Amino acid sequence: MSNMDISPLEFQKKEFSKSLRGYNPEEVDEFVDKLLESYENIYRENRDLKEKIQLLEEKIQNYRDMESTLKNTLVLAEKTAEEVRNAAERERETILKEASLQAKEILHRAKKQFEEINTQNEELRQQFHLYKIRFKNFLQAQLDYLDSVELDTFPYSDSQSDAVLEAATAEDEEARAFATDEDPEE
Fold it and tell me: Which of 43, 52, 114, 136 shows its CA 20 to 30 Å from the CA of 4?
């Protein structure tokens, strides 16, 4: 304790020496008793206030620690959120690039298949056209052969000739009907 700190107990036990021309001891004792009571109240109040101040300072420190922890948590949460956003953006870009490449590949394959089918179709048309021309030529040659003199070695009678002519006319009509159903390109 410093020289100024006097406890109520020290204050109460303090005794003064008596002198001949001193103050009235009863008045001094009475005044000291009142002063002691007042001092004890102030001393207790001071002690209580110091305890409250210490408790409040501890609470303030706890709040400061919590505030610091919350700030750190907030900073960490913001950083984590930013990292998650960046990772999601990178993943989105990767997925879009892969999807674009796959779409281009699918389109390329489809175009190639289309061109192959188109080429095959054109080849089949040409082959069919060539076959049709050859078949017509073959049939024409056969018809020419049938009209040739070489086959007239067996002459018909008039009644046989009329029956053959009727049959041939009926077949010609069927052939014409069939020819109108042919390929519209011809």
Answer: 52
